[in-house]
Specification:
The protein is built from 21 helices and no strands. The protein is globular, with a radius of gyration of 22 Å. Helix 9 crosses helix 18 and helix 12 packs antiparallel against helix 13. By secondary structure, the chain is an all-alpha fold.
Length: 440
């Protein structure tokens, strides 16, 4: 059953069938051909796949991010990042990276970050004498931190699939997220020096909504930039503190985040209007629909794989090669990187995790550590050719060829692989904060 499932899925993808429909179609066709299972069972699995209560956190966190963005968060976070690193060599490229750390704690999605920040930052970087291809590469690499930084949609999906504590996963992502941003900043510094992007046409700009209009402005100062951005920065802290002290679960935290975003948008920033509110609900609804369709179909596909004993056969094959967790993790990294190149992260997670989880945990790998490794792998796959969804999106925003963006992304991809090796083989990077706080 396994080869037929994979073949049907790849065939559907080659025919450009959207991934959610491709997963469902491959599952139903395979069940019809090689199984006596009634198709009604498949429909039940699709519904069951999106009924866990914890998945309610996904639409709520997406809505909270949409409300914060509509309420004026983007330009405030950009201005704050600019005030911190804008004076460094390659200041705007560094601002691009740091703002992704700030914004990742709001959106939880790399693609959402690129869509929101990329439209502003790519244009700004091009105006400041960076090449379009380099601007696209930085903008694609920086938001990979979003699925690692809590609250993360991908972590929620992993927690639901494996039964791992979502609270522990959120805390485990803090140090890895900071480490990734630090390594990316070093890479930006080195590449800017090598490429000669040392003179920026515009020094800095106080208001990022004026990109393309303001010829020159002074760099914003830190303290005046911090206070307007503080309400937005407090949202992840409110979520983590509430989970840590048992005030609410991760799912309830998502509802708190929505209420918090409404209060900030209406009462503090006062930029959230009823028209913007309706638009935020509409945009969030579309994104939720896309994600939940993929999740539902991926659950059916995963169930079909399990019914065909594919996880057991793969586990036996891997253990026949080695039972050394170091080598097993290396094999898993290769598999996940390849999967992340072609398959949407949440779909890949649901398909592959039920196969890998029992193998790795029985070899002694901590479930929380494994979750971070999987999330990081799938994130790096977003910028890795031949598909690289994040790189493709940013190259479209930069109006540059995908091949040119790939060339400029080389150093950032190498940094991603080095970072992945650290996360994989130094588990304390992920486990230190949860063990310190005793998060549950």
């Amino acid at each position: 059953m396994g080869p037929m499932l994979l073949g049907n899925f790849l065939g559907s993808m080659l025919l450009r069938v959207p991934i959610g429909w491709a997963l469902a179609l491959a599952s139903f066709v395979t069940l019809m051909i090689v199984s006596d299972t009634p198709l009604s069972i498949g429909a039940q699995r699709i519904v069951a796949g999106i009924t866990p209560f914890a998945l309610l956190a996904i639409p709520l966190f997406i809505l909270a991010g949409g409300l914060m963005n509509a309420g004026g968060i983007t330009k405030r976070l950009l201005t704050l990042a600019d005030s911190i690193v804008g004076g460094w060599r390659g200041g705007l490229a560094q601002t691009n990276v740091l703002s992704s750390l700030f914004f990742g704690g709001i959106s939880g999605s790399a693609v959402a970050d690129i869509s929101s920040l990329g439209r502003i930052l790519i244009q700004a970087m091009k105006e400041r004498n960076y090449s379009a291809a380099y601007s696209a590469a930085v903008t694609a690499a920086a938001p990979i931190v979003a699925p690692i930084m809590p609250p993360s949609i991908t972590m929620i999906v992993y927690g639901v699939v494996t039964g791992t504590s979502i609270g522990q996963l959120f805390f485990a992502g803090i140090l890895p997220a900071v480490l990734y941003v630090a390594m990316l900043m070093v890479t930006v510094h080195l590449t800017v020096r090598r490429r000669g992007f040392t003179k920026e046409v515009i020094d800095q700009t106080k208001d990022f909504s004026q990109i393309g209009k303001t010829p020159k402005a002074e760099r914003p100062q830190f303290w005046p930039s911090l206070w307007p951005a503080l309400p937005a920065l407090l949202l992840p802290l409110v979520i983590l503190a509430g989970i840590r002290f048992g005030w609410f679960t991760a799912t309830e935290a998502a509802a708190v985040a929505v209420i918090y975003a409404l209060l900030v948008g209406f009462l503090i920033y006062r930029e959230l209007t009823w028209k913007k509110l309706v638009h935020a609900f509409a945009e969030s609804g579309v994104m939720v629909g896309l994600i939940m369709l993929v999740l539902a179909a991926a659950q059916l596909y995963s169930w079909a794989l399990t019914s065909g004993r594919v996880p057991q056969m793969i586990a036996e094959a891997m253990f026949a090669v080695t039972e050394n967790p170091v080598i097993l993790l290396l094999m898993v990294n290769v598999l996940l990187i390849v999967a992340g190149m072609f398959i949407e992260a949440n779909a890949a997670l649901i398909i592959i995790t039920p196969i890998l989880f029992p193998v790795l945990t029985s070899a002694g790998v901590d479930p929380v550590h494994l979750g971070i490794v999987i999330v990081v792998n799938l994130g790096i796959g977003l910028i890795t050719p031949p598909v690289g969804i994040a790189l493709m999106l940013s190259s479209e925003l930069a109006k540059v060829s995908f091949i040119s963006a790939i060339r400029e992304a080389g150093p950032f991809i190498l940094t991603g692989f080095l970072y992945l090796a650290l996360i994989t083989y130094v588990p304390q990077i992920s486990l230190f904060v949860p063990s310190l706080l005793g998060a549950s």
